[in-house]
Amino acid sequence: MRAAVIEKPFSIGLKEVSEPVITHANEVKIQVIVTGICGSEIHAYHGTHPFRIPPVISGHELAGVVVEIGSEVKDVSVGDRITVEPHYGCGVCKQCQAGNYNICKEKSVLGTQEWIGSFGEFIVVPENTIVKLPDNVSYEQGALIEPLAVGVHAVRKAGIGQGDKVAILGAGPIGLGLLVATKNSGATKIFITDALEYNLNIAKKLGATSPINTTYEDAVERILEETDGEGVDTVFIAVGVQSVLNDSFKIVKRGGKVSEVALFGKKPEIDISYIQNKEIQLIGSNMYVRDDFEIAAEAIAANSFDTSLFISKIVPIEDVKDAMNMVDQKSENVVKVLLKF
Questions:
Q1: CA 20 to 30 Å from 294, out of 146, 272, 276, 334?
Q2: How do 189-194 and 81-84 pair as beta strands?
Q3: Structural domain of residue 179, as residue ranges?
Q4: What's the DSSP call for residue 120?
């Protein structure tokens, strides 16, 4: 099969590799139709991701069609249009038993050396990771379910409700997913920051009430001014930048919440005195669980937001190197780039 392989940092190319095969009765083989380029793929491309380590066939945002099923698969059929929740836990530890398999220490993640990802033309996954696409959701929209589920999980974990004021630091795909999820959960004042005007324009179309371009404006001053010095109820960190992390403590209200969603390439330093002084609740948010995936799929099926604003380009898999560089170097105005087989 064809696969885009990250051979080493800053080196990716299309190769012919062996197709994965079903080895367990509960497994499903999928032909990938489209797959997204995520920030974690860029971290892998840089050689800085903690577990997507070259050489690797990465990729975990996908939609495709079932082409083969194992003998014990009951609820999935050949021909089903699907996406995949790209991780699963050990099933026996305390976290898995509590339903928190997203933080299982032994969980398996798609797009690693141990589990070939959707940058390959075919993948094999356990049946319980399959999420069927609603009839009115295209393959391209289906590939957006995963990044949106990241936002859904963080927003549910933070307990966003009607009338909340929130700030989202970073307007990339994860930040925009957080925006959609906070708006759908009832937030009425939504600040979002970025250095790229293109992304902020998309954010405004998706419902952000106060986009802030940090190239020209001090986000801390603006947010405190618009909240009468109080700050927001919850801050979501959607970009792994040192300065953003400490800004979050300045703009959250006393007793408020900071949700850390982003991956940091370098270990950040924080001014921990803010957490003690303001009694800030610092919340980690790691990927998602199935409920988040299903909520995201339902939101797309219900046309709760314009998915076309997310999908900037659809690129043939043969042009994967150019596509990766486009996302990495921000050489063009893009939010989400999809690769198509």
A1: 334
A2: unpaired
A3: 151-284
A4: B
Phi, psi of 198 (to 5 degrees): -60, -50
Q: Are residues 264 and 165 in the same domain?
A: yes
Task: Give the tens place of pLDDT for each residue, 86-107.
Answer: 999 999 999 999 999 999 999 9
Q: Who's near 76: CB < 8 A, 6+ residues apart?
A: 28, 66, 69, 82, 127, 130, 132
The domain spanning residue 63 has which CATH number? Answer: 3.90.180.10
Q: Is residue 54 part of a domain?
A: yes
* pLDDT tens profile 152-202: 999 999 999 999 999 999 999 999 999 999 999 999 999 999 999 999 999
- H or E element at residue 139: helix 139-142
In this structure, what CATH number is given to the domain that contains residue 195?
Answer: 3.40.50.720
CB atoms closer than 10 angstroms to residue 162: 8
Does 228 lie in the same domain as 116? no
Q: Are 73 and 27 in contact (CB under 8 A)?
A: yes
